[in-house]
Amino acid sequence: MTTQLAAPLSIVVPMFNEQENVSPLVERVHDALADYTGAWELLLVDDGSSDATVARIREAREAFGSHVRPIPLTRNFGQTAAMQAGIDLARGEVIVTMDGDLQNDPIDIPRLVDRLLREDLDLVAGWRRDRKDNWLRKVPSWLANRLIRRLTGVNLHDYGCSMKVFRAEVIKGVRLYGEMHRFIPAWLATQTAPSRIAEEVVTHHPRTAGTSKYGLSRTFRVIIDLISVYFFMRFSARPAHFFGLLGTGFGLLGGLGMFYLLIEKILGHDIGDRPLLLVSILFILIGVQMLTTGVLSEMLSRTYYESRDVRTYHLPARFDLAGENDAFRM
Ligand code: UDP
Ligand code: MG
Questions:
Q1: For the chain, what is the mean pLDDT?
Q2: Do the bridges between strand 197-201 and strand 123-127 make them parallel or antiparallel, or are there none, so unpaired?
Q3: Which residue of 93, 160, 166, 283 could cross-link 254, Cys pair, CB 3.0 to 4.6 Å?
Q4: Once rounded to an integer, what is the mean pLDDT over residues 119-132?
Q5: For 75-79, 87-91, 152-156, which range has the lowest pLDDT when averaged over its residues?
Q6: Where do the TM regions start and end (predicted)?
Q7: Which residue, by CA, sits nearest to atom 21 of ligand 1?
Q8: Which residue owns the Cα nearest ligand 1 atom 2?
Q9: 153 C-alpha to center of ligand 2: Å?
Q10: How far, in Å, CA of 219 to CA of 240, rounded?
Q11: 82 CB under 6 A from ligand 1?
């Protein structure tokens, strides 16, 4: 057997009311990484839990030592924001994201990391080929996967799987919002070559402790996000293209109408109070409006993406980031 490749590794796990899962998770991560030759840290992001999750995380840090890094958020910001917090604070060259409810299995981590390093990839995404969720979850995911596949040209089976391994330098710049964590591969596809993204079948278990934090309302939010991602992918760089296309269409229609009326006029026909006149002028006006809206939204999206202060989470004021984990050396 060839030796496994290793690099400094950060594992990011968002946790919201997962008190029963904290210590088994930490244990399994330690087991899975027992033979890992690189430095590693486990960032347990408490997403404003109201149960004993914070206490369990603190206990885990005491029991297991400095591999465990507790990141307490000030309130519940949602899985995506919690993930963002962990990614921002991660110090590894490779970043793993996964769920904290043991539906993902830490046992898969070394294999995915090895693949990333060996093949020099930017992302190795988990594929829950044998997914242990009900059809209410599986059907919307199936649809979402198809749509994202078509839009991005990145051929993954399972965009929604939380278990993913990234090269830190490419994921560090990501700004996640809404329910967007499932669209990270789509976003990455705009930053890197599709050939640098791969997938790997991972283990998936049913949830055994605690409850799922999501119901139908999330399915709805995901659909809204899908629509925004569609527009994002198609038009984010140039929103003016979208409005410009519409505006030009309207303008052309209006222009054609005016041209027709002009001919009529020249031929000496009475164009008096013809409704077509009104419609043509309206269409030209709409066209101009659309074009200016396009230019405006272009400026707006620039301002948005260039402002680095799009904060989706908050850390406690006296949270000490420095020197809390001296074991993190290669
Ligand atoms: N989660 C979180 N904040 C939230 C909701 C969920 O950090 O507001 C975490 C949760 O603790 C778990 C992961 O996100 O580690 C996935 O959540 P869940 O298992 O409820 O989702 P499902 O597997 O049902 O899609
Ligand atoms: Mg789950």
A1: 86
A2: parallel
A3: 283
A4: 94
A5: 152-156
A6: 242-263, 275-296
A7: 212
A8: 79
A9: 28
A10: 30
A11: yes
> What phi and psi values does residue 68 have, to the nearest 5 degrees?
-85, 125
Q: 94 Cβ partners below 8 Å, 6+ apart? A: 7, 8, 9, 10, 113, 116, 117, 165, 166, 167, 168
Q: Residues 202, 225, 307, CA angle at the centre, nearest 5°?
A: 105
Measured in Å, residue 266 CA sits from the centre of ligand 1 at 70
Q: Is 103 in the pocket of ligand 1 (CB under 6 A)?
A: yes
Phi, psi of 81 (to 5 degrees): -65, -40
At a CB cut-off of 8 Å and minimum separation 6, what does 250 contact? 283, 284, 286, 287, 290
Predicted-assembly ipTM surpassing the 0.95 threshold: yes
pLDDT digits 0-9 by tens, 211-234 = 888 777 777 777 776 776 676 666
Say if ligand 1 is within 6 A of residue 47 CB. yes
Name the residue with the closest Cα to ligand 1, atom 13: 99
* pLDDT at position 274 over 60: yes
**pLDDT at position 330 over 90:** no
Tokens of 111: 């294999």
Among protein residues, the one whose CA lies closest to atom 22 of ligand 1? 212
Closest ligand 1 atom to Cα of 137:
25
Q: Where are the beta strands (DSSP E) in the chain?
A: 9-15, 40-46, 68-72, 94-97, 123-127, 164-167, 197-201
CA distance 100 to 207: 10
CA angle, 215 then 218 then 220, to 5° = 115
78 CB less than 6 Å from ligand 1? Answer: yes
Contact 287, 247 (CB under 8 A): yes
Task: Give the CA distances from residue 116 to residues 7, 28, 132, in Å, rounded to whole numbers and listed in that order.
Answer: 10, 21, 26
In angstroms, what is the span from residue 284 Cα to ligand 1's centroid? 50
Protein residue with least CA distance to atom 1, ligand 1: 79
